[in-house]
Amino acid sequence: MAKVKSNYRCSECQSVVPKWVGRCPDCDSWGSMTEVAVVAPVASRAGASLAKAGSSAVLPTTPATPLTQIDSTSTQAKPTGIGELDRVLGGGVVPGSVVLLAGEPGVGKSTLLLEVVYRWAMRSADDRALYVTGEESAGQVRLRADRTNSVHERMYLAAESDLATILGHIEQVKPTLVIVDSVQTMLAADVDGVVGGVTQVKAVTSALTSLAKASGIPVLLIGHVTKDGAVAGPRSLEHLVDVVLHFEGDKHSTLRMVRGVKNRFGAADEVGCFELSEQGINEISDPSGLFLHHREEAVEGTAVTVMMDGKRPLLGEVQALVAATPLPTPRRAVSGLDTARVAMVLAVLERRVGVSISKADVYAATVGGMRMTEPGADLALAIAVASAVKAKPVPKGLVILGEVGLAGEVRRVAGVNRRLIEAARLGFTSAIVPVDSGPNIPGMRVNEVANLAEALAYAGLMGGKQAPSRPKLTPVK
Question: Which residue range is the domain that position 407 belongs to?
Fold first, then answer.
């Protein structure tokens, strides 16, 4: 005998709940719950004994293969021709992989992947790329390709949004790379739900993932983001793909960054730098100079630090301005820095080393639109503010690293050796770092400090006993 009971299923995300609710607990859709009948068979003693005996086991059609007999050369990454993108991907695109590139509208996702298609088509006569767009017409894509000089005979374009038609194009063209722009505009006709909804996005991504795994064709998907900056759609979408990349950029700046969030074939914290212009998008292999203001003489209120963005060290400049104010509540304006950490550093400066700023306006910012949110920039910010108060510039060629604690101590940060090597490469000759930060750097005098007072003394902003500095080593020829 069998028992019949009712459950309720969401028409958007197919989630099932035992009782009716007005709002789906998974996708937050209102009025999407419909009643479905579920037949639950009653287990008998005979059925239970058969289940224990394992009689329901199904023999696989293909036996398991020893790991030593699996060919690893078939999954080696193929370079796309864009070095910064290959850096984030872990060397290139792996055959059969699915890559999701997400970013805000207008940041340059389509321009970047159109350049990838062009570079891929130029690789060899056997490589052809298919660009599928559901957001633009074929004429619009051709205009962008002409403007960016990205036109090649082995580039194929399909302005389609139906999944079955797209699979037909792939079968006909037989490409070695597929670009889908964007996954939220594709429609699976045999699946319920609106275009861009949770059900449709999951179905389209699952179908393209199955195609990539079965045929070995790498697929690059463009995805939209929400107001919070997360990938639009269900979180399971990020679990279906192999690589998740975020394309970031400020609309007031031409700098763009591709940041790895998930990567099954390499490091997940790499960053690639690009510059977006009217002629297209260009990679920036050495972005450290973008965040420094090159001047002949030192200026008070500035300090240089090195930030680790993923595994890449980037030099950046912190600027501070301190001005008297007649207002009872002084103003604190911050740009490019963490507001909470700026407030903490200002409090430590006044309480621990006596730098009076409680009755003055303080403005703190970074150069070139760089965002410094890691604690390693605390010491550079503190020295920049003290330099602005004392109206005395920091010595030229000095780089500053360290986290500032509430007791005024300077704490160690990760990757000091890599940061100092990058600073020495750009011509910096001295550094202020926390105690026990690692080995010496040839050509650089490294000064180790234990607290904020020693750091200000090294920078020439206050008197006090200085700790011994490391000897300056000469570079090995």
Answer: 290-458
